[in-house]
Write a structure and sequence with these properties.
Distance between the termini: 59 Å
Shape: elongated
Structural class: alpha+beta
Largest sheet: 5 strands, antiparallel
Number of strands: 5
Number of helices: 15
Radius of gyration: 27 Å
Strand order of the largest sheet: 2-1-5-4-3
Low-confidence stretches: 175-182
């Protein structure tokens, strides 16, 4: 699943346009780190203030520099951001990741932070005076531009951020992708080689190229059990071998087997084997004599 396939998916495009209408923002879905032209762009108003100003090449270059800088920082932090552009309007940059791959970035906004009035327009006009705009046209478009407060912007921004964070689950349904057994075998081998170091769900999901939520479903579908239960079983099997075949103290066995505390080790071990680790060692010792 990449940028090209994403923007060509009819169901995704429908969702995208609905999100634009709900939020009231002008949004583009830009390719990774602006590597090429955005193929999906939503315009609420063809006569929008920013559309007019971007016809000026020097102004457009400044816009690109501002967008690129903020999108790079958002990708670096793997977290969306909203900010003031060089003309003083609200903009946003929200990266879309699938696993560890950055596939696209929601860019846009182009909204005033305060309702347009004479005082605010004067400040805005002075900010962009050097670009030689037609001030009559600029004034007309400025007073048609919607405004939004920070308190209003934050929940809209969170909606776009949530869509981005949960995109893989949505994308999987849209494209009806299936992950093959070869991938599952690779993940099983990775877990078998690393379970003693107690890899987190997020770490293993990223290794599989899946979001944590979808990884849980995918793993259960392929293994018949949840990831945590599967990892506990491997840890318990190793602990049982060490209890039977070594004289190592029980606390050392617990940590070497991937458990983070003695109490959780004792509890989970008892649930699985119906006896404590000490009792299991005693039974194993008796059976060997």
């Amino acid at each position: 699943m990449d940028y090209q396939s994403l923007v060509r998916a009819p169901k995704f495009m429908k969702f995208y346009h609905l999100m634009c209408k709900m939020t009231g923002l002008n949004l583009v879905l830009a390719p990774p780190l602006n590597n090429g032209r955005a193929l999906l762009e939503y315009k609420l108003d063809s006569g929008h203030l920013c559309s007019y100003m971007r016809n000026n090449y020097r102004f457009y270059q400044k816009c690109c520099e501002c967008d690129l800088r903020n999108s790079r920082e958002a990708v670096r932090d793997r977290k969306g951001r909203y900010y003031f552009c060089h003309a003083g309007l609200y903009d946003i940059a929200v990266p879309v990741f699938i696993g560890s791959n950055h596939v696209a970035t929601f860019m846009g906004g182009q909204i005033l932070s305060e309702p347009p009035d004479e005082e605010n327009y004067f400040e805005f006009q002075e900010r962009v005076r050097e670009y030689g705009f037609d001030f009559d046209r600029l004034r007309e478009l400025y007073f048609k531009t919607p405004s939004i407060s920070k308190d209003q912007l934050e929940p809209i921004f969170e909606l776009i951020q949530m869509f981005s964070e949960h995109f893989y689950e949505l994308g999987t349904r849209l494209f009806d992708n299936k992950t093959g057994n070869a991938d599952f075998d690779m993940i099983k081998e990775y877990i078998a080689c690393n379970f003693s170091s107690n890899p987190s769900l997020d770490e293993v999901a990223e290794k599989a190229g899946l979001s944590p939520n979808y990884f849980c479903k995918w793993f259960r579908d392929n293994s018949g059990t949840g990831y945590v239960e599967y990892k506990h079983r491997l840890c318990l099997e190793k602990a049982a071998r060490l209890l039977s075949d070594s004289d190592q103290d029980i606390s050392g066995i617990a940590f070497e087997s991937g458990f983070t505390s003695i109490s959780s080790f004792n509890r989970i071990f008892r649930q699985h084997y119906a006896c404590s680790p000490r009792q299991y060692r005693e039974k194993a010792s008796d059976s060997q004599t």
